[in-house]
């Protein structure tokens, strides 16, 4: 129990102060006039003022409360390096035993792992949460068992007691880190993009080689080997081999004695785009469909279009001198011999043999297709005539053969079962809402994939792969009716856009493809196929382990599944002959940007209340009691500040000046003063 005197004035303190001033003035006046009873009158005033101040003797029944020590144990990824985890566990157990053996002391142990995503070690967030749950007046100290690599030190709270860092790691640790800077999200296919690469050594690096080996691999292929200097920015040109996502892996092999190789690899994912898609459009004669093709291709800013319409065929003899013609001569030799490989797509729109393109030129087109080019035949009545382009060196590579019949009949194009699975014709909408076409060229399907049919289910759209290239045949020249809204129109723009981009090998329109999309550590695996069923996808993790995952069909020809990748790094996917790679996690995980244990990050927080940092490899420090404001750490020791906190169970109060005593004393002093002055 503790007893103290407190005051509970009967009148406000300002009024009491005025009364006291008046009393003092009266006593001083009596003293100045020489009245012999001034002292007794002063005692009477003092008794009255003391009574008005309300002195009370208060007795509290107090129960002492224990001091609380917070111990934060860092279990983030960087703490798994070397023997830091063992250092942490051993130090935490020994400290816990010592603190729990102290009188009047409790221990709270808080474990901190990696933050969500790539936030790193969120130690201060854990400390803030712990302080919110405990009375700050009872916190005697904060112990942090960590390597000191903290990523939210800017959120450090006002500390109620000294904080100490018990630092894991070894003074002899050193590490090598690979950094890739200025990696763009997009790059042009087959054109070098310059990346800045740097290899940095940190920690107790021994004198050695000033260079490091570097391996660069694209999409998991066999890596190329280079040697670059350490500690210097190196500009490295890299060319993307294909469109879509390209996964580039940079790796520096682990050096002898290096702390970890987790930061020796960087994954960069860049989308390859074509600089310009070059299209050659050859129209055999002016017609509404030719304008449709021209408008479609000119509306795409990524397409360079070269368009020739044959307005004056060789057989036309009208006697007009050549020098008076304003027509541009068709540069056949330049286009079909010298620069044919510069084009990504050649479209023959209602073209027929008129002697403009000799057989040797069309034979060169066949070679162009086999070498990876693309040709689209938009057929009109010319395709069924004796001058059909089918009756040329192109015949062996065309997927359908004309029967010489032109069907002048109303019909609505229909997508085949296979077409519903093919990316070019899937999800085009309900064919019942489409307008009709009025002409179809009758052909016999020979090879390739039949995606659309017309009159009596005759072939309308056929796609085929020839050698390394692609060929497509559209057996009608009336697709333009959809663009004019005839009988409600149809998806003409989307169909022709997809068709042209499939011909130019755009990745998203491949009918047989496997790829994945990453969101943090979760990948969505997508398999596009024309088959009704596919096998499981085999996933090879960065550590070499494999597993199989089954995909579900989410729409016609599209199968999907999600998978959580437990590791950061390169994952390989395979299903049949289809293969893909994807990188999960950041290019440079924050936990491994700095791996050498340090007290520099936490030093400002420790210095706030004069805490300290102790290396665990030097031994566990002793624990002392220190007063608030005094140095809380020294060589081989750390301090806790006892808080002497208590809980008040009961309070009793008793007045020191009861009214009868005040009346007796004040009246007695006044009477004595009056009598003394009367005797004089």
TrEMBL record:
Keywords: Membrane, Transmembrane, Transmembrane helix. Signal peptide: none annotated. The chain crosses the membrane at residues 12-31, 38-57, 657-675. Gene3D superfamilies: 3.40.50.880. It comes from the Bacteria. This is Putative membrane protein. It comes from Ruegeria denitrificans.
């Amino acid at each position: 129990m503790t007893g103290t005197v407190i005051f509970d004035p009967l009148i406000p303190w300002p009024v009491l102060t005025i009364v006291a001033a008046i009393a003092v003035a009266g006593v001083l006046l009596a003293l100045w006039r020489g009245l012999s009873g001034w002292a007794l009158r002063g005692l009477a005033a003092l008794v009255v003022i003391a009574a008005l101040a309300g002195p009370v003797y208060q007795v509290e029944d107090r129960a002492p409360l224990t001091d609380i020590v917070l111990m934060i144990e860092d279990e983030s990824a960087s703490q798994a390096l070397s023997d830091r985890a063992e250092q942490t566990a051993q130090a935490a157990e020994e400290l816990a035993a010592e603190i729990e053996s102290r009188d009047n002391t409790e221990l709270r142990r808080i474990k901190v792992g990696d933050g969500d995503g790539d936030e790193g070690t969120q130690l201060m967030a854990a400390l803030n949460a712990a302080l919110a749950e405990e009375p700050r007046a009872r916190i005697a100290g904060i112990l942090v068992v960590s390597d000191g690599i903290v990523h939210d030190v800017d959120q450090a709270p006002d500390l109620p007691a000294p904080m100490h860092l018990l630092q894991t790691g070894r003074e002899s640790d050193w590490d090598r880190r690979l950094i890739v800077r200025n990696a763009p999200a997009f790059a042009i296919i087959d054109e070098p993009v310059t990346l800045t690469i740097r290899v940095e050594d940190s920690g107790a690096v021994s004198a050695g080689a000033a260079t490091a080996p570097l391996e660069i691999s694209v999409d998991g292929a066999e890596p190329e080997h280079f040697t670059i200097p350490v500690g210097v920015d190196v500009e490295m040109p890299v060319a993307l081999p294909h469109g879509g996502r390209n996964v580039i892996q940079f790796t520096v092999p682990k050096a002898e004695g290096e702390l970890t190789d987790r930061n020796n690899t960087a994954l960069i994912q860049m989308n390859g785009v074509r600089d310009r898609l070059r299209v050659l459009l050859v129209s055999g004669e002016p017609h509404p469909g030719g304008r449709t093709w021209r408008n479609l291709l000119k509306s795409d800013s990524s397409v360079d279009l070269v368009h020739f319409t044959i307005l004056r065929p060789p057989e036309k003899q009208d006697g007009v001198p050549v020098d008076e013609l304003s027509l541009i001569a068709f540069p056949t030799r330049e286009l079909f011999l010298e620069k044919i490989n510069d084009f990504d797509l050649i479209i023959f729109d209602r073209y027929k043999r008129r002697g403009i393109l000799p057989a040797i030129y069309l034979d060169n087109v066949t070679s162009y297709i086999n070498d990876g080019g693309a040709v689209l035949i938009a057929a009109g009545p010319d395709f069924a005539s004796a001058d059909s382009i089918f009756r040329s060196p192109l015949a062996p590579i065309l997927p359908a053969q004309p029967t010489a019949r032109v069907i002048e009949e109303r019909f609505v194009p229909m997508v085949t079962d296979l077409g519903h699975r093919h990316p070019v014709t899937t999800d085009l909408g309900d064919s019942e809402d489409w307008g009709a076409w009025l002409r179809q060229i009758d052909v016999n399907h020979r090879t390739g994939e039949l995606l659309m049919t017309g009159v009596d289910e005759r072939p309308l759209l056929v796609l085929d792969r020839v050698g390394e290239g692609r060929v497509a045949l559209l057996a009608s020249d009336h697709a333009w009716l959809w663009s004019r809204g005839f009988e409600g129109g149809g998806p003409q723009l989307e169909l022709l856009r997809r068709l042209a981009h499939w011909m130019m090998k755009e990745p998203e329109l491949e009918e047989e493809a496997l790829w994945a999309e990453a969101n943090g550590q979760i990948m969505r695996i997508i398999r596009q196929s024309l088959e009704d069923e596919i096998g499981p996808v085999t996933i090879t993790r960065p550590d070499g382990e494999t597993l199989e995952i089954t995909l579900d069909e989410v729409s016609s020809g599209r199968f999907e599944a999600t998978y959580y990748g437990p590791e950061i790094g390169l994952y390989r996917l395979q299903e049949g002959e289809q293969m893909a790679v994807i990188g999960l996690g950041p290019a440079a995980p924050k936990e491994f940007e700095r791996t050498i244990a340090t007290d520099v990050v936490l030093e400002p927080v420790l210095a706030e209340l004069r805490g300290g940092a102790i290396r665990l490899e030097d031994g566990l420090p002793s624990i002392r009691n220190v007063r608030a404001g005094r140095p809380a750490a020294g060589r081989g020791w750390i301090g806790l500040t006892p808080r002497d906190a208590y809980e008040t169970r009961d309070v009793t109060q008793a007045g020191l000046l009861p009214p009868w005593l005040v009346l007796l004393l004040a009246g007695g002093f006044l009477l004595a003063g009056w009598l003394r002055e009367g005797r004089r």
